[in-house]
Amino acid sequence: MTHLIAVYRQQLKTAIAEQLQYRAALVIWLIEVALGPAVSISVWSTVARNEGGEVNGYSPSGFAAYFIATMLVNYATQTWVFWEFSRRVREGEFSPLLLRPVHPIHADIAQHLAYKILMLPVIGLVTLILWLAFHAGFTPSTANLATFLPALLLAFALRFTLEWTLALLAFWLTQVNVINQLYVVVVLFLSGQLLPLSFLPAPLQAVTAWLPFQWMVAFPAQLLSTGLSAQAVVTGFLAQLIWLLLGLGLLSLTWRRGLKRYTAVGG
Q1: For 58, phi and psi rounded to 5 degrees?
Q2: Residue 175, CA atoms < 13 Å, CB-side half-sphere
Q3: What are phi and psi for residue 55, nearest 5 degrees?
Q4: CA-to-CA distance for 28 and 21, rounded, in angstroms?
């Protein structure tokens, strides 16, 4: 454990130095994170006001709180490794990573944490601006707030595990952009980023309950914005843990089989 902590400390230092070299890219990524919620708040708040002040239990301030919460959760859990992995494999960049004494996944975790640490003050400012501009009304209970951080950590672990596993498809396919784009669309609709899941048709809501996506975003976002019942909180944590264990098993299996297929030149 001491060795792994030392590895992460060094990886974080390296990753932060790398991220600072691409400050313009960091700003662009942050705008992407913030722009979607701002548009969603404007649209759904207008709908709520036109419908007499509330839609499906959400007032304009409720919509603001929900979409700000999804922005924060998405910022904390979002990864981009599956966009880069294909290039690593195809151009041989992955080869030197396999020679290191630690699993390559640790470098990717450190890189993502470095980005999130660097952008934390800025995302905090964006949150404050959106909160004041749209008069967000956060109404979680104290118990829900206490469970938000553990739920957020599990959401990050789950999302990173599943998306790193998705990235491993590059061992079998030379072009995975279509699969990645399809995945992004599915996550956008079924994780609660585009609209609250309660707005979906009942059959589709039942389907999302058995999929991992809402537990990556909607579950912690609801804990922060409006709160959930004790039963819903327990169900959410169980779903996160079950999917995380399944994801780790799938990651281990895909990693072992992918390495047997890996061939590359250069690097």
Answers
A1: -110, 125
A2: 1
A3: -135, 120
A4: 14
Q: Residues 147-160: pLDDT tens digits?
A: 999 999 999 999 99
Q: CB-hemisphere CA count at 13 Å for 57? A: 7
Token couple for 165: 């596993």
At residue 155, the pLDDT reads 97
Handedness of CA 124, 45, 153, 146 (dihedral sign): positive
Instruction: State the angle between helix axes of 60-77 and 104-134 in degrees (0 to 180), rounded to the nearest 10.
Output: 160
Q: Which residue has the tokens 């640490």?
A: 117
CB–CB of 184/37 below 8 Å?
Answer: no
Question: Could you give the CA distance from residue 175 to residue 179 in angstroms, rounded to a whole number?
Answer: 9
**Lowest mean pLDDT across 32-46, 217-231, 235-249:** 32-46
Q: Summarize pLDDT for 105-117 with one digit per residue, the tens.
A: 888 888 888 888 8
Q: How many domains does the chain have?
A: 1
Q: What angle do CA 205, 168, 180 make, to 5 degrees?
A: 50
Q: Which domain holds residue 32?
A: 2-266
User: Hey, which residues does 55 pair with through a beta bridge?
Assistant: 58
